[in-house]
Design a protein that fits this description.
Chain lengths: 447, 472
């Protein structure tokens, strides 16, 4: 009995990358091949061939999709799952010394649930408690692997900035939230938020100059004492050197324009505006700056600054030439981003491909990882999701999810495994109860 | 006659009172030396606080006080590798406050061992790493020891003669000291090694509002704590370089500002990092390697997992494994079971961790983790034995192994000629919960634990006894 259970549990683990042919699928590539009925060949974790008719390599595992839909793995550009011990270092207005990389928790069940919702990559962001938050990075949802193995190799890391209500009210008794804090934390206004960012970059420029001078001396063969490493300013130095993407939490048009002005003055680019619910008002300016926009489909009015929002935001920004993605910011919403994308078809008339791109190729572009993921193209990572129906519909269920050509979620196997897990759980509960009864008298509730 | 005299003396000193016979001979006893073979029937001679001789045929000196060990066993004194004994106001659990709140098996609370929150210093609000928040790295436990701590006597009742005791407040608590558990007038008598390593804790803070941590302020999250510790080690490196340059030639150079937090860090020859869950073990092994510090991982609850043992083995890690096994939360009989499969597995398998580490050849020691009462401690060790650890290995993990880990195996940890006379004399196996600890020798001083409670009863030796010096 135990042995069979073990066997079941073992098969639950991700299968090793092998040569796989997914046949007879409706393939929505979000790439050059558009949507077609045919096959995808996966080899060594990469997409090896895409076409209506492909040669099945010898020894390949064939998955007959039976007409089901195959799409690129979903990418969530704004998530806070898989972290240990808090995702906000809200004690200070600039917390760029902290790094999500240090607290990745591969055990977070939200990873598996996101995976079961078709998500293969997620940008794990620091929270929005402060004007300049912590360092961030994208993860692949390789459930069962270690923290390091989840990191999206080669992806440019990021940093979180936040504007508006959250950074000005958190840690500030006048702001309403966090009234227990004994000493107010600057800033308490939007003006202050701008000032914090400008001041931080003033410091970072001084820091950079110090290190540049040192590096120049070293390059000349001298041996000066190195300046002190300041982790807080180091992260901002990387922003100035275009080695770290800036993801800015924002809502209102005025603060978006402020951020663009500050970035232009300081000399860095905003990689993405996050939430950006009033982005439709300043889409031209966002497009001119070259920033992407990662927004919600129809989620707003949870606070004053999130009032003037419309469901057409995503498509309006898209039509102004902005790379637009739809994100979750939430472990539950993360599990059905496909339907979030579907709403872009209803509100603003995005095509199927345009809508699907908002949760696949576009977030890949925003995160600078579109060379390896985001669409079904030969040579890209085999991050694939098989749905039993049209993937932008509420009724579509994820059947299989592959990351790097490895099956990490299989609905049928999951359903079978649940019974075994329940049985194992019951066995352990019974065992524990038996041992408790041996060691202590049964306590009865009062009559 | 001598025996009678001894018994009479025992009756007189109901509680543990040290005597100072300069020479003692324990004869006719089974001697478990740990470093060598077990002597079925032999003699140990104690002289001047040291082990003068041990063996089957050792002559009893004429001036010796003789203890007839017939039917008894002599063990080396136990060593608690991570303790707070002797530190005033410290919670009994040195390292498990995170789990002490009834949720040890709950994944929602990271079971990172922490200093109890209530103890966190009411520091000024910190605005960043430069304020050196929650840091007392310069403290030495040796300077904080209270000679009259009643816990000394309590844990001695379980056979502990030595403890590595730490100041555990905040993030950088300070350096632990290795102490012998004598009851004396002066704390200085207890100190074996004053500086044994820096204790680092990583409790979880508040987060969004920034009110977490001791006194509020930075750091208020785990990532903040990690960033802070990283910055401190970067600063310490830089500080050392600048100080060296200044010492070499101060002319024309601004003098480096004295930083006691960094002085304390630089003075520590090893660090203790907390890691209970598998992810924490992985994280802290990497972090310790990044900091380039010799380190000991403490807690190690998930060490029973093959993945954890693999990681520890690959990293050639040193582990202090808590004996406080995860237990089911207390619920009313008709409450629903809400534990996940993972939590159930953890409670089922955690006590196999010592056997797993032993088998994998990982350097480890067991520590009591605040299980002060002898019965609780003995039950915890017994649980490890019931889960595959041999009695010999259990004993070694509480004697010679911790001595080796802290580099004092030349002084304590086994019964060898020339080592400090830290010995336990028992009736029955030392880890049976019906064992009687008859006598304990620390630095050659004899202590007699108070009468233990009847089997099945609560508590152990003399916890209610004021004991020597317990008059504060």
């Amino acid at each position: 009995m135990k042995k069979t259970l073990l066997a079941v549990l073992v098969t639950l683990g991700p299968l090793c990358a092998e040569t796989i042919v997914i046949q007879n699928a409706t393939v929505m590539t979000v790439g050059s091949k558009g949507t077609f009925k045919g096959s995808v060949v996966v080899k060594d974790g990469k997409i090896a061939e895409v076409g209506e008719k492909v040669m099945v390599p010898a020894g390949a595992t064939v998955i007959d999709a039976g007409g089901q839909y195959l799409i690129p793995g979903i990418i969530d550009c704004h998530s806070h799952i898989a972290g240990d011990g808090g995702i906000n270092e809200g004690s200070v207005s600039v917390s760029s010394m902290v790094n999500i990389r240090d607290i990745i928790n591969p055990d977070d069940i939200a990873i598996y649930r996101a995976l079961a919702g078709g998500v293969t990559t997620a940008n794990i962001l620091h929270g929005s408690a402060n004007a300049i938050g912590g360092m961030t990075l994208p993860l692949k949802m390789r459930w069962g692997k270690s923290a390091q193995e989840m990191i999206f190799a080669g992806a440019t890391p990021g940093i979180k900035f936040a504007l508006g209500e959250n950074p000005k009210r958190s840690g500030n008794p006048q702001g309403g939230r966090g009234t227990a804090v004994p000493v107010a934390r600057y800033p308490a206004t939007r003006m202050g938020v701008e000032d914090v960012i400008r001041e931080a970059f003033n410091d970072a420029k001084g820091y950079k100059a110090e290190w540049d001078a040192y590096d120049a001396l070293v390059a000349r063969g001298e041996h000066p004492l190195a300046p002190r490493v300041d982790l807080k300013l180091q992260a901002l130095k990387e922003v100035l050197e275009n080695k770290r993407y800036v993801h800015v939490h924002c809502y209102r048009a005025d603060e978006i324009l402020m951020m663009i002005r500050v970035a232009d003055d300081v000399g860095f680019k905003v990689r993405t505006f996050q939430h950006v619910l009033e982005g439709y008002k300043v889409a031209k300016e966002i497009a001119a700056h070259g920033a992407g926009a990662s927004t919600f489909s129809d989620w707003w009015a949870y606070k004053i600054e999130a009032i003037d929002a419309i469901p057409f935001n995503a498509t309006l920004m898209m039509k102004k030439g902005i790379v637009v993605s739809l994100n979750s910011d939430d472990a539950e919403l993360m599990r059905h981003l496909n339907t979030e994308a579907g709403k872009a078809m209803k509100y603003g008339g995005a095509t199927e491909t345009e809508a699907l791109a908002m949760v696949t190729l576009n977030p890949a572009k925003q995160l600078g990882i579109d060379k390896t993921v985001g669409s079904i193209e030969v040579g890209k990572d085999a991050d694939l999701v098989l749905y039993d129906g049209f993937p932008l519909s509420d009724f579509a269920k994820v059947q299989k999810v592959l990351i790097d050509g490895t099956v990490y979620f299989d609905r049928d196997k999951e359903l079978v495994a649940q019974a075994a897990k329940e049985a194992e759980k019951k066995r352990l509960i019974d065992k524990e109860k038996a041992s408790q009864q041996r060691t202590q008298p049964v306590r009865r509730p009062n009559q | 006659m001598k025996k009678l005299l001894l018994s009479a003396f025992l009756v007189l000193c109901a509680s543990a009172v040290a005597e100072v016979p300069s020479t003692v001979a324990i004869r006719n006893a089974k001697i478990v030396t740990v470093s060598g073979a077990v002597i079925a029937k032999g003699t140990v001679i104690i002289r001047g606080g040291l082990i003068d001789a041990v063996g089957e045929n050792v002559a009893v000196p004429a001036d010796a006080w003789v203890v007839d060990g017939e039917g008894m066993t002599v063990y080396p004194g136990l060593i608690d590798g991570l303790s707070t004994v002797g530190i005033a106001g410290a919670a009994p659990a040195a390292a498990a406050a995170g789990g002490g709140r009834g949720g040890r098996g709950t994944p929602a609370t990271p079971a990172t061992p922490t200093a109890p929150a209530a103890q966190a210093a009411p520091a000024e609000r910190s605005w960043g790493p430069e304020d050196r928040p929650q840091t007392t790295s310069w403290l030495l436990a040796a300077d904080e020891i209270q000679a009259g701590d009643r816990r000394v006597e309590t844990v001695r009742g379980a056979g502990f003669t030595t403890a590595v005791t730490f100041p555990t407040r905040g993030i950088f608590g300070g350096q632990g000291s290795i102490i012998d558990l004598v009851s004396g007038e002066k704390a200085a008598e207890m100190i074996l090694v004053p500086a044994a390593g820096q204790y680092i804790a990583m409790g979880r803070g508040g987060g969004f509002g920034g009110g977490g941590g001791g006194g509020g302020g930075f750091p208020s999250s785990l990532m903040g704590i990690i960033a802070y510790v990283r910055q401190v080690y970067l600063d310490a490196d830089h500080y050392r370089l600048v100080k060296e340059a200044y010492a070499k030639d101060p002319r024309g150079m601004q003098r480096p500002e004295y930083d006691r937090a960094l002085e304390g860090v630089l003075a520590s020859k090893r660090i203790l990092l907390p890691a209970n869950r598998l992810v924490e073990i992985d994280r802290m092994l990497r972090f310790g390697a990044e900091l380039k510090q010799p380190m000991i991982l403490y807690g190690a609850r998930d060490a029973y997992l093959p993945e954890a043992a693999d990681l520890l083995k690959k990293a050639n890690a040193t582990v202090l494994l808590s004996l406080k096994w995860p237990t089911a939360p207390v619920r009313s009989p008709d409450a629903e079971d809400t534990d996940t499969l993972r939590m159930l597995e953890q409670r089922d398998k955690a006590p196999t961790a010592p056997a797993v580490l032993q088998k994998a050849g990982i350097k480890y020691a067991l520590y009591a983790d605040g299980l002060d009462a002898p019965r609780d401690f003995q039950r915890a060790v017994k649980k490890a034995i019931d889960n595959g650890l041999s009695r010999e290995d259990a004993l070694r993990a509480l004697t010679l192994s911790p001595a080796e880990i802290y580099g004092v195996a030349d002084r304590v940890g086994s019964i060898e000629k020339g080592k400090i006379a830290n010995l336990v004399l028992t009736k029955g196996d030392i880890f049976d919960d019906r064992t009687t600890v008859v006598m304990v020798f620390v630095d050659g001083k004899k202590y007699t634990p108070a009468e233990t409670a009847a089997p099945g009863g609560r508590g152990g030796a003399s916890t209610d006894d004021p004991g020597p010096g317990g008059n504060r």
